[in-house]
Amino acid sequence: MKVLVIGSDGQLGLELQKVSNSYDSLSWIFSTIKTLDLLKLYTISSFLNDINPSVIINCAAYTSVDKAETESKLANSINYKAVDIISKWTSENKKKLIHISTDYVFDGLSDILLNENSHTNPINEYGSSKLKGEIVCLKNDPNSIVIRTSWLYSSFGKNFVKTMINLMKKNNSVKVVNDQIGSPTYAFDLAKVILKIIMNSKNKSGLFHYSNEGEISWFEFARSIRELYNLDCKIIGVSSKEFTTLAKRPKYSLLNKSKIKTTFNLEIPNYKKSLKNCIEIIKNEA
Ligand SMILES: NC(=O)c1ccc[n+]([C@@H]2O[C@H](COP(=O)([O-])OP(=O)(O)OC[C@H]3O[C@@H](n4cnc5c(N)ncnc54)[C@H](OP(=O)(O)O)[C@@H]3O)[C@@H](O)[C@H]2O)c1
C-alpha cells in the first residue's frame, strides 16, 4: 500500500516520518512544499496521478493563526481550495484520504465537551478556512476521514512547549493565558493513531476528534512544562483580555474523544504522560 504524506516537514508530518519506520510493509512518499506546493492548485491532480497513492495523509496547512487574519486568501487556498481538489481526486480514484482539522472550528462559548456534531462557528480566519476544508473534504469524499485535533506540539517545529522552554530559560517570569481551556495533543501520539486508522479503516469514514486526555488551561500547560523540564521561572496567569492577539481564540475547546476511541479501539494517553515523553526528547537534543 502506497501512502503519501503531504506537508511532511511540519510537526505532524515529521512525527509520521518517525512512525513510518515501524511500518516497512507500507511504501511511503513524503511530499513537502518543494515537491507539491498546494498554492499551485493546478498542479495537484497531476502530482497525485503521477504518484497514485492508495492513502493520502494531508498534514499540510496554513497554520499561522494570527497572520491568517490578514492573509485569509492564502489560508483559504491551502486549507480549503487545495483540500477541495485532493478530496475530489481521492473520491474519483477510490483512494483513502485522511485530513487533519482543528478545534478552532468552534467559537469556545460552550463549556460542554465538544463532540463531532457540536455546533461549529469559527471566530478567526484560520478556523474559518479549516472548517471550509473539512466540510468540502467530507462532501466530495464521504469515504474520507477528518480528524480534528487541538493544541498540537512535538519535539519538531515551533510550538507552545518549545516556546515556553526557551522563554522560561531566558526570563524570570512569563505571562500565560489562564482562561482558555482545552487539551494538548502530542503529534507523535496522533501520528501513531493515524497509522492504526490506516491499518483498520477499510469501511470507516467521517469526522473524529482526537487530543490527549486531560482538561487544562494554557497556564496549567506551562506549569507542567516547567515542572517536567525542571525550570525555575515564575508563571503569571493572565486573562485573554490582558493578552491580546490579532486572532481571537476559543475560550473552551475540549474535544470529546469517545467516537475515535470506540471506533478504532484506542486508549489515549493523558497529556502529562505524553508531555513527559516529548520533553525527554527535547532535553536530550538540547
Ligand atoms: N499546530 C496546532 O496547534 C494545531 C492545532 C490543531 C490542528 N492543527 C492542524 O494539524 C495539522 C498539522 O499541523 P502542524 O502543527 O503539523 O502544522 P505545521 O507544523 O505548521 O506544518 C504544516 C505544513 O504545511 C506545509 N505547507 C504550508 N503551506 C504549504 C503549501 N502551500 N504547500 C504545501 N505545503 C505547505 C508547511 O510547509 P513549510 O514548513 O515549508 O511552510 C508544513 O510542512 C494541520 O492541518 C493543522 O491545521 C494544528
Distance between the termini: 37 Å
What is the fold named in CATH at topology level?
Answer: Rossmann fold
CATH class: Alpha Beta
Percentage beta strand: 15-25%
Oligomer: single chain
Name given to the CATH architecture: 3-Layer(aba) Sandwich
User: In what order do the strands lie side by side in the largest sheet?
Assistant: 2-1-3-4-5-10
Helix-and-strand structural type:
alpha/beta
Poorly predicted spans: none
The molecules bound to the chains, other than polymers, are:
NADP nicotinamide-adenine-dinucleotide phosphate
Q: Classify the helix fraction into a percent range.
A: 40-55%
Mean pLDDT equals 97
The sequence of SSEs as H and E is: EHEHEHEHEEHEEEHEEHEHH
Rough outline:
globular
Number of domains: 1
CATH superfamily (homologous) name: NAD(P)-binding Rossmann-like Domain
> Major β-sheet, in short?
6 strands, parallel
Measured on Cα atoms, how large is the radius of gyration?
Answer: 18 Å
Describe the structure.
The chain is an alpha/beta fold and 286 residues long. The chain has a single domain, classed as Rossmann fold (3-Layer(aba) Sandwich), CATH 3.40.50. It is built from 9 helices and 12 strands. The strands form 4 sheets. Strands 2-1-3-4-5-10 form a 6-stranded parallel sheet, sandwiched between helices. Strands 6-9 form a two-stranded parallel ribbon. It has a two-stranded parallel sheet with strand order 7-12. Strand 4, helix 4 and strand 5 form a beta-alpha-beta unit. Helix 1 (11-20) crosses helix 6 and helix 3 packs parallel to helix 4. The radius of gyration is 18 Å and the shape is globular. Bound molecules: NADP nicotinamide-adenine-dinucleotide phosphate (NAP).
